[in-house]
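Following up on my earlier thread - several people asked me to post the actual chain instead of describing it. Fair enough. Here it is, all 459 residues.
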Amino acid sequence: MDEPATSDSRKSVLIVTTLSSFLTPLTLATVNVALPSIGKAFSADAITLSWVATAYLLTAAMFLVPFGRIADIYGRKRIFIYGMWIFTLSSLCLGISPSVDILIIFRAFQGIGASMIFGTGVAILSSVYPAGERGRAIGINIAAVYLGLSCGPFFGGLLTHHIGWRSVFFFNVPLGIFVIILSMKSLKQEWAEAKGESFDFTGSLIYSLTLLVIMYGFSHLPSARGFLLILAGAAGICIFVWWEARIKNPILDVRLFMTNKVFTLSNVAALLNYSATFAVGFLLSLYLQYIKGLSPQSTGFILVSQPIVQAIFSPFAGKLSDRIEPRLVASTGMALTSVVLFLLAFIEADTAFLFIIINLMFLGLSFAFFSSPNTNAIMSSVESRLYGVASSTLATMRLLGQMFSMGVVTLIFALYIGRVEILPPHYALLLKSTKAAFLIFGCLSIVGVFASLARGKLR
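Reply from S.P.:
Thanks for posting it. Predicted structure:
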């Protein structure tokens, strides 16, 4: 059993995990702004461009739960540092990619590294911070996520505009190396509270292949092949649940979902929240650059308004959830998200920039009041030996939501625009697609409010 963490070691853990939580979303946000430039460089169509974002999310989701379990068994610090190495080296390779296909492959490798970071960061934090202080620490950590998202559009736009889209990936390399060096010096302790337990390789394989089949199916909708692949994925989920329920040391204890209402519905709420919101940045980046004619730099300045509000209010929301029932705080945030998404469904080619900025700021506020309290509720609802599984499950819900969000957009693009490069004759269809997506996301968010309220009391 590890010694209780001292105040200094807690601060070291908070600094390292906060820096990594800043870096990984920074990558997502910078790439979103660079996508139109990447599309022009490789003459890529809208669906291929969506795969530049989706490949990262897909592999991160496929490997998250397995690596969360491996970290619980073999050490969270070890997996965290390995993940940082893979993430950093992949960023270097992305910067020298000669084609969009190679770019998508290295985005997939970058996602594997991200899964190792996502699956351990919050688990390490939860291992060293007691229940009464955990909400504040998680709030700071989530603020770093939003700060990364804040800086992403700004730096992504600046770098793409002045140096080119490749610099967006090179930018991650020195930051990644810095976090690796700091981690090796600062993290003195190892956390492996499930040490000695066996790893479920079969369950990991079923889980990863199921996610791959489902997401690949989304990219082929509305064809019969797409529907068949999604049905095969649904069958895979059933097989996975059956397998995990019958073995001694599963990678994902499905009994948690059956017996722990707070854990289950908090994860469902997270899934719905990210499903409803992740593609907002992607859609608005295309809208602002194609339809409004803005440069990547100007687009970044507008998109930054959302996450900067999130970064300011996340620590406050996390601290509030230490005192007030997390479901009340999180549900309020989710309800505000619904309102904003429905308002964005009314945008037109001549919509004022101020309308978009104000809605993005309120979206940032709604994220802050949902994410920190919801994360606190999940981590506080399980025992310490399951922190890695709980952390990776939450991160999986986030990535599955982000994947589903991009899947909805991919499907809408396939229905409205098709596999063509986005040129002026297609701008009206791009706008129509964007409005339809916001309407669907608003409906998803309303369902999320009910899931959030239904979770019951944590304390």
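The mean pLDDT is 84. That should answer part of your original question.
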